[in-house]
Amino acid sequence: MSGQMRIAFDLSFTHTEGRWAAPGSWVGADYPDLGAFVELAMAAERGGVDMLFFGDGVGVPDTWQGSMDAAIEYGIQWPRQDMSPFIAAMAQATRHIGFGLTYSSTYMHPFYVARLLNSLDHVTGGRVAFNVVASGRVTDAANYGLDGLPDHDGRYARMEEFVEVCQALWDSVEPDAIVRDRVTGRFADPAKVHRVDHDGTYFKVAGPLPSVPSPQGRPVLVQAGASPRGIAASAAFADVVFGMGGHLPSQVSHRERLDAALVAAGRDPADVGILWAIQAIVAESEDEAKSRKDRMAQMLPPDAVGAYLSYNSGFDFSTLPSSFALTEVADAIAAAQATQAGFVQRLIALRGDDATMTRDEFFDEGWRWATGYEQTVAGTPGQVADDLEAQFEATGRRGGFMICNPSTMPGSLHDVVGLLMPELRRRGLVRDGYAGATLRENLLGR
After folding, report:
1. CA–CA separation, 391 vs 411, rounded Å?
2. Which InterPro entries does the UniProt record give (predicted)?
């Protein structure tokens, strides 16, 4: 997966954190309007975007002050739909663009997910990716009957077994098992349909999958772990990794650590790219782009920032003292088995292991993280392309970018499609057209 950039567009939060009311947002079409999603898919395909991506979470954030009120009032990380039916509809209006769908290996069962994704791969004609996540939010856990989060490393062990079972199920019916011989009445060859008989630590599954093999055989596998254990899981099975952008030294380190883990797992690092998460504001002039970025400062009030940070870190930041060491907060987050690669960890990477902060300093940085201000590249098509090209070169020209949390929808997508993609194409950084019929061919080149 080297050479040219792959470009994905994250539609997970196009309607949350104040974006639903920002200039350039939909008027007369409110989330989750199906027609709006179909229109977005068609526009993204016209621009040559490789994949539309949907993250997921099933809890309404209630970590901040132990209450859902702020999240509900300001639309923080909610509402969220199961996007599989929406993807099925978007696929009927498009021919090439792929779709990334998220399910939690922490809470879901692999047989159900393997069968669902097989069916969705048929419906889309081979254009599905599966984003496998080890859930790290206490609120989500409560909806599956758990009082707290399972052990951090244990979640990744479960994830690896989850994927192992899914892969065995997807392979349990060989591609040419279906005969359909009208003369003899023989539908399939029994020798090419296999039981799985998996009996592991977390799952016991007999198999086979009672489904016809799908166009891709199995979906493209995406994984976003950035902790040491998460990177090991990525190296074990991921076709492409979703990585945090916005801080080049951390990106270079992530690439190096992933490469080492891939070699240890017996895989070729050239085969696994990273899609770096960025936010992009693209405009005809630099002044207009900067003006739009400056407006991000007014997107969220303090309680909304607190709700966002607390939910995504698994720690109630309303309890912070007036001054504290960042490592103490990171240790508390780790002790709660929550995410080990979030906002606090990024602050430590920027400020050092011995950094201390005041509460006011922390929340001043926090709104930049919650809105994506620090991760937002803003400028003309040439300026944004310069930035992406520099990151792409520095991280080994393997993968590309996941354009996330746009400031407005559909305005931001149309700017990317109409302004940025032509500039990247002019430079030879993205393909001119789609390379194949399936997402695997287009995203991975194989």
Report:
1. 25
2. Diverse_substr_monoxygenases, Luciferase-like_dom, Luciferase-like_sf, NTA_MOA
Q: Which residues pair with 220 in a beta bridge?
A: 129
Instruction: Tell me the mean pLDDT in the region 406-417.
Output: 90
pLDDT at 22: 87
* CATH number (domain holding residue 244): 3.20.20.30
Task: Establish if 386 belongs to a structural domain.
Answer: yes
- 300/303 Cα distance (integer angstroms): 8
Using pLDDT thresholds of 50, 70 and 90, give the confidence band for residue 281. very high
**Within a domain: 402:** yes
Q: Is 64 exposed, middle or buried (0-12, 13-18, 19+ CB in 10 A)?
A: buried
Binding residues: 56, 102, 152, 156, 227
Rounded-to-integer distance, Cα 242 and Cα 401, Å? 9
Per-residue pLDDT, averaged over 263-288, amounts to: 96
In a domain, 195, yes or no: no
Residue type, 352: G
Six token digits for residue 11: 């539609």
Q: Is 324 domain-assigned? A: no
Q: Which residues are annotated as a binding site for FMN?
A: 56, 102, 152, 156, 227
Q: What is the pLDDT of residue 362?
A: 94
pTM score of the predicted model: 0.93
Residue type, 26: W
Report how many domains make up the chain: 1
- CA dist., res. 279 & res. 406, Å (int): 6
Distances from the Cα of 108 to the Cα of 86, 155, 214, 444, angstroms: 20, 12, 21, 27
Write out the residue range of the structural domain in which residue 18 sits.
6-167+211-286+376-444
